[in-house]
Write a structure and sequence with these properties.
Chain A: Composed of 13 different subunits. Subunits NuoCD, E, F, and G constitute the peripheral sector of the complex. The complex is a heterodimer. Chain A is an alpha+beta fold. Chain A has helices at residues 3-6, 16-26, 36-47, 54-62, 66-75, 95-99, 102-113, 158-163, and strands at 87-92, 126-131, 143-145, 148-151. Chain B contains 17 helices and ten strands. The chains are: A alpha+beta, B alpha/beta.
Chain lengths: 166, 434
């Protein structure tokens, strides 16, 4: 995504696909509000993040105040309210991974990409985030890139691994 | 570096009568789909529960079995079930499966959901029948993408086979099941925060009472059970209370088997289904193989970040709630962590308290303000810049964030390991004073 594409236009419109996916989700619950997190995830999946205009658009479909949707969007750590990279790297920071060498691993990723936790590389390729225990404790340290989880991660192996995510 | 599908869990022999949770696992670590699950006696318990048993008898059987919650708190499942209203005119009720496994050093539910999705569905189907719930949700953390895929495929299989949906097994009983995936935040695993999150709200805990059994999701009676807890239900129904009570070691007050584990710098980190009441030493030495060459055990935690540290001498303790309680902490999730002598306790606690502070939902003041204060002091101590009185201040925070000061157990869980670390390794904290 180029930086110009990230600039928000005045009018935000949900795509037909997004709208129908949100409406489909609503039917799984007694109350449309329950689909708010899923709605944010649907928009994020299509656009990489949740632009400002998506908040009132989702609120309209669900019939709840925009402030409630924003409250949810800013609470959950896997909903992004600002643009992120094409690939999300989540490094597990549980105490098990700490013992397994998490800090050395994290440092090697930070040095390789030139960014800290919560930041995105200048070319828009990677965003680096911490994450709660990934449930890979027998293979510590662990990390996740997009939807792929890796165990027994080593600083030496990171360069080759990152190459797989252009 | 390996792409981490869960893989085969271990090669120990597993029999139906002694390993009710894991005997159906495949040697190759692949999921057990419907045909194979049925060949392995799958849904026989559901058939028995729906066709031959009265609803109250299922509840009574689970009560009598002594099954306790496997999510970390260990509340008796039958008692929780018994809190659901007896009034049959209340027809809208919910069964929630807490699959928001995020407790550091806990990865048992992931294994069950990825490899035995039908066992959870069968457990939920029987429980739904017992509790008269017409709809269930599996609240699954968003990062467990393989578990989500496998559960959804298994639900489709079960629907097509008439094991979910309308008029199940011709009994007139209807039960719909959905997978609801989360969007991060450790606090969603707290029972009432989970309910708020499912409703599409911020995951703040709710005051109890009212308990979820009286007013849960959308104000309706709701029962929330952990993945492993629900996985216990089919075998209890099929094989009975006497069999279930014979599983644990003599002396254990907790019944049945438990997925326990050991990780850290041990020779063979992993998860095993073992009887309640085995000693921590057996788990550590016989199953995990003891420490790797060149590493020495310094201390250990019995079951997750929110449990206290114990010394090597405490490995004699029995792994059940009362056994671990006797040596001063809680059994938690039963997946233990070995800390070796190369680890500095101040640095380890700094790592843990950063996690707890970050994951506080901010609802209660002691938690929102107290946990970052712990982090600030620990960071200073780690750099050797602690001030006189800092350790006493940490001890004060341990007391002020303890049980009863906040809506939920997040803050008490955060300070339990800290209090025990100061108790056993005070010199390491003192070394951080400037």
């Amino acid at each position: 995504m180029s930086p110009t594409e990230l600039i928000q236009t005045d009018r935000f419109v949900l795509s037909e696909t997004e709208r129908s996916a949100i409406e489909h989700e609503m039917h799984h619950y007694e109350d449309p509000r329950a689909a708010s997190i899923e709605a944010l995830k649907i928009v994020q999946k299509a656009r990489g993040w949740v632009p400002d205009g998506a908040i009132p658009a989702i609120a309209d479909i669900l019939g709840i105040p925009g402030s409630d949707v924003e409250g949810v969007a800013t609470f959950y750590s896997q909903i992004f309210r600002s643009p992120v990279g094409r690939h999300i790297i989540r490094v597990c920071d549980s105490m098990t991974c700490y013992i397994g060498g998490h800090e050395t691993l994290l440092e090697s990723v930070q040095n390789a990409l030139g960014i800290g936790l919560g930041q995105t590389t200048a070319d828009g390729r990677f965003t680096l985030l911490p994450v709660c225990c990934l449930g890979n404790c027998d293979k510590a340290p662990a990390l996740m890139i997009d939807e792929d989880t890796f165990g027994n991660a080593t600083p030496e192996g990171m360069a080759a691994l990152l190459e797989q995510y252009p | 570096m390996t792409l981490a599908s869960f893989g085969p869990i271990n090669s120990s022999a597993r029999q139906e009568q002694t390993h009710p949770l894991t005997w159906r696992l495949r040697a190759d670590g692949e999921p057990v789909w419907l045909d194979e699950y049925r060949q392995k006696n799958g849904y026989a318990a559901a058939r028995k529960a729906l066709l031959e048993m009265a609803q109250a008898d299922i509840v009574q059987q689970v009560k009598d079995s002594g099954l306790k919650g496997r999510g970390g708190a260990g509340f008796p499942t039958g008692v929780k079930w018994g809190l659901m209203p007896a009034d049959d005119s209340i027809t809208t009720r919910y069964l929630l499966c807490n699959a928001d496994e995020m407790e550091p050093n806990t990865w048992k539910d992931r294994m069950l959901m990825e490899q035995l999705p039908h066992q959870l569905i069968e457990g939920m189907l029987i429980s739904a029948r017992a509790l008269k719930t017409y709809r269930g949700y599996i609240f699954l953390r968003g990062e467990y993408v393989d578990a989500a895929r496998n559960l959804n495929r298994a639900i489709d299989e079960a629907k097509a086979a008439g094991l979910l949906g309308k008029n199940i097994l011709g009994t007139g009983f209807d039960f719909e099941l959905f997978v609801h995936t989360g969007a991060g935040r450790y606090i969603c695993g707290e029972e009432t925060a989970l309910i708020n999150s499912l409703e599409g709200r911020r995951a703040n805990p709710r005051a109890k009472p009212p308990f979820p059994a009286a007013a849960g999701v959308w104000g309706k009676p709701t029962c929330v059970n952990n993945v492993e807890t629900l996985n216990n239900v089919p075998a209890i129904v099929l094989n009975g209370v006497d069999w279930y009570k014979s599983l644990a070691r003599p002396g254990s007050e907790d019944m049945g088997t438990k997925l326990m584990g050991f990780s850290g710098k041990v020779k063979t980190p992993g998860i095993w289904e073992v009887p309640f009441g085995i000693s921590a030493r057996e788990l550590f030495e016989d199953f995990a193989g003891g420490m790797r060459d060149g590493y020495t055990l310094k201390c250990w935690q019995p079951g997750g970040a929110g449990t206290g540290f114990l010394l090597p001498e405490h490995l004699e303790a029995s792994m059940y709630a009362g056994g671990i309680g006797k040596v001063g902490t809680r059994m938690g999730t039963g997946l233990a962590l070995a800390v070796d002598t190369s680890i500095n306790m101040v640095s380890l606690l700094r790592n843990m308290e950063e996690f707890f502070a970050r994951e506080s939902c901010g609802w209660c003041t002691p938690c929102r303000d107290g946990l970052p204060w712990n982090v600030k002091i620990l960071r200073a101590l780690e750099k050797g810049q602690g001030e006189p009185g800092d350790i006493e201040l940490l001890e004060h925070l341990v007391r002020s964030c303890g049980p009863g000061k906040t809506f939920c157990a997040h803050a008490p869980g955060a300070v339990e390991p800290l209090g025990s670390a100061i108790k056993y390794f005070r010199a390491e904290f003192e070394a951080g004073l400037a």
